[in-house]
Amino acid sequence: PTFRSGLNNTIQKRNRSSSTYSVENVDDETGDLIVKLVTEGSEFLRYNTSSGSNRAIEAKAQLNYDKLFNVVHRVGGMLMYYQRDYINGSAGSSITALPYRKQGIALRGTYSFRDTYFGEFNIGYNGSENFPKGKRFGVFPAGAIGYLLSSEPFWNVKAVNLLKLRASLGLVGSDTLPSNLRYGYLSTWGSGLGGYGFGYNPSTVAGVGEAQIGVADLTWEKGLKKNIGFELGIFDNAFTMDVDFFHERRSDILIQRGTMPGIAGLNAAPYANMGIMENKGVETTVELSNNFDKLHYRFYGNFSFTRNKIIEMDEPKMEYEYRMRTGNPLGQRFGLIAEGLFADQAEIDNSPEQKFGAVRPGDVKYKDINNDGVVDADDQTSIGYSNIPEIIYGFGTQLIWRGIDFGVFFRGQARATYSLGGSTFIPFSEGVGKGNVFDKALDRWTVDNPDPNAFYPRHSDGRSTNNWQPSTRNIYDGSLLRLADMELGYTFDKKLISFMGFQSLRIHVLANNVALFSPWDMWDPETGTTNGDKYPIPRKINFGIRTTF
After folding, report:
1. How far apart are CA 500 and CA 60, in angstroms?
2. Confidence (pTM)
């Protein structure tokens, strides 16, 4: 058995602020910028401390069993009990200060015959105080089988030394709730939810009402996971491959109801275990390693493709089906389809009316999807991808020759889309006198440069509502390939260092975040920012020496 508890911490902060300036104008004679002090910083450090604590008590007891019978039958088992009690000592309310408790028991049994046929069964009986009585405990079974085909007596493919097939099926549960639903099965009351007139000269008096309706049958979110895969080894594992295909259907996801009408008189839409999602994809890793004379080489890579789809989210039925989130990936972006920039007033007059404010030459032109002669919210459809990459991959190599070792590793992502916007990205969106602009602002529509494919539409003093609608113009491709690591080292021969008392000596230089390749060049797409206001991943170079005496 094991027991754990306790954490206390004190945080000290020292900071100072800088002065900020904005550009007011340009001196016509000298060409110098005329700046204005916006906020004055502080020269000296300010000091403050804050303390926090939490308490966690965990108890875990586990029994294991492993036995081989008659050389060919291997039987194993595990029985585990787990309990956790957690108190947030820095909780902001009496409700969140109450203990969070979990309890569970798990049983696992394994069997193999001649280390060729494998079977495993697991079952968990887990409890959480997040749910009402009668719903607090859930049963979650899982099973897996495997077949090491290459260990069969009839296997005579000499080149393939390893071939294993496997499959699994299991049910998992989650008790995670939104932070505002500490006890989601209880209804809550609140003040300031309306009022009434009172007195001879009526004045409004705030009333008390039902703030959030509890979910009486609140229960576990469940996920049914399926997996099939294989392991392959060729030429004494000089080449190996591991492939898994997976599918998951999540049900009873806690969501806020979307179809409750306003006439129901609710202060907040109730929650319900109604959501359903599907995830599926493939993961694979490969490796090639061998020796060629005195050169040892290793090439390796990994690749994963994952796609999800919303099956049910209690979404109200829309007039135009292409506006529905149901059936699309979680986080799928929706917006207008941009068709370039208006060249002149004649093009504006001969195009569908755009309902996002006054339109002038150089403004964004949008597609009228439903062909009703008007461009409005009904013309928004799915655009790009979500901000979660569907493809993640990596590859690298390692070479060793006569004590010299060299390695590189690349990683990348694809099929991800991020939004553009914000005052730091849109030139002069807060007025001409505020903010800096990217040099990309030079690539804009002007009377002298009426390019319909210019990066920026016409500039204006203040933000143009029409030009910065969610659209295909205001997203960017998050695909990237990063040279994440590069290392060069040298290990000295023992004969050269033994007189110094060393058993081994290696020197190396390691560089991180060496280079980035991406169709988007204004900032690092991996930050996911809409306007480049996040600190980029730093580039580091480390030098090191490692020795043993």
Report:
1. 50
2. 0.84
